[in-house]
């Protein structure tokens, strides 16, 4: 069972009014590996930082290898033995979450096409689940983004949301249409069933204060790793500010209500909006004082929207993204907006990824990256 809450504050978090969720012996691995290596028929070197490994150890390349095999292209292959093929698998090097990250492992949709917004188009968005401790049912009031196999990025107000008899329990990955499981595309292909991954740790920015919007960022550490599929992939994080110019078209992705439709859609939604100047944003929220207080830090927020349409309730914690050189990168986290969602000259406010990139990297457990 799913439900959604909504709020009526002048400045309301997009997940709705703050909701009180409050509560016999076998050969060793070394022997097996040595046996496989000894039977390799051929092996070639791999370019850059990629590494030649068995295909089973590089699941992110499985679909691409299948495509290349169909075309007779073996450029990613580096060897074969009687057990299985080997491929050049991209490896992430330090630093993990900035522009030196090996981009082959993030920000790509397996299903691609101009103007395509269906199943698999935005596989990096996840739903944050809160479990009713009395009935065992779930609600999904907000969203997050997959940035590693066991790390989901979201807003602090989402991670710490409260409602009677509920507690943050899991992250649901691989979802597209909340009415169906598994989800199937219009051409007939189906994604694997969506998986609820239990949350083992919640890391909230230490300076976040509930009820306010400063430092509205959190990491959810999952108990088990995500299996990347057509509907579940990691997104890149955009650590530069220089190219995020006023007027640039960006997208907000999540499950929730758009101002342009009467009801919340069960399907993953995407909305294109422009980046807004900081001065315009400050003027829009001047009467609330939300952006101007002694706790305000230069650069912690960014604004987008104001064209007369916006993402409203249910989008809290959702990623604001750009498409850069064929890959998606996250530039913001939905933090809050106005009660008059979608009003002209009333943009929404996002936590800046560029500002918090060092915090994200420093607080991401290295064992789970």
UniProtKB/TrEMBL annotation:
GO terms for cellular component: extracellular region. It holds the Pfam family Trypsin. Keywords: Disulfide bond, Glycoprotein, Immunity, Innate immunity, Secreted, Signal. Residues 1-27 are annotated as: Disordered. It comes from the Eukaryota. Residues 1-12 have a biased composition (Polar residues). SUPFAM superfamilies: Trypsin-like serine proteases (SSF50494). CDD domains: Tryp_SPc. It is found in: Secreted. One of its GO terms (biological process) is innate immune response. Gene3D superfamilies: Trypsin-like serine proteases. One of its GO terms (molecular function) is serine-type endopeptidase activity. Residues 110-365 form the Peptidase S1 domain. Belongs to the peptidase S1 family. CLIP subfamily. This is Peptidase S1 domain-containing protein. It comes from Anopheles christyi.
């Amino acid at each position: 069972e799913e439900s959604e809450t909504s709020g009526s504050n002048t400045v309301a978090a997009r997940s709705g009014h703050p909701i009180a969720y409050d509560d016999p012996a076998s050969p060793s691995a070394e022997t097996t590996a040595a046996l496989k290596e000894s039977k390799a028929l051929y092996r070639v070197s791999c370019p850059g930082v990629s590494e030649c490994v068995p295909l089973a150890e590089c699941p992110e390349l499985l679909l691409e290898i299948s495509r290349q095999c169909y075309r007779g292209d073996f450029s990613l292959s580096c060897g074969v033995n009687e057990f299985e093929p080997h491929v050049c698998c991209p490896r992430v090097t330090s630093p993990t979450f900035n522009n030196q990250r090996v981009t082959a492992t993030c920000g790509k949709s397996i299903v691609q096409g101009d103007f395509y917004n269906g199943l698999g188009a935005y596989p990096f968005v996840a739903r944050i689940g809160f479990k009713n401790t009395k009935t065992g049912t779930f609600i999904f009031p907000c969203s997050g983004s997959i940035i590693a196999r066991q790390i989901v990025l979201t807003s602090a107000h989402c991670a710490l949301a409260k409602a009677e008899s509920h507690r943050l329990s899991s992250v649901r990955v691989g979802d597209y249409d909340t009415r169906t499981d598994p989800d199937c595309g219009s051409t007939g292909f189906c994604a694997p069933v969506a998986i609820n991954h239990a949350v083992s740790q919640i890391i909230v920015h230490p300076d976040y204060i509930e009820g306010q919007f400063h430092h509205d960022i959190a990491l959810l550490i999952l108990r088990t790793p995500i299996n990347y599929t057509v509907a579940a992939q990691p997104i890149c994080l955009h650590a530069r500010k220089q190219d995020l110019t006023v007027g640039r078209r960006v997208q907000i992705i999540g499950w929730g209500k758009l101002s342009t439709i009467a009801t919340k859609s069960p399907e993953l939604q995407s909305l294109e909006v422009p980046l807004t100047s900081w001065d315009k944003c400050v003027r829009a929220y001047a009467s609330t004082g939300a952006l101007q207080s002694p706790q305000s830090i230069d650069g912690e927020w960014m604004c987008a929207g104001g064209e007369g349409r916006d993402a409203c309730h249910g989008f809290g914690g959702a990623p604001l993204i750009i498409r850069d050189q064929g890959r998606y990168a996250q530039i913001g986290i939905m933090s809050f907006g106005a009660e008059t969602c979608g009003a002209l000259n009333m943009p929404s406010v996002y936590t800046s990824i560029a500002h918090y990139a060092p915090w994200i990297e420093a607080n991401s457990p290295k064992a789970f990256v």
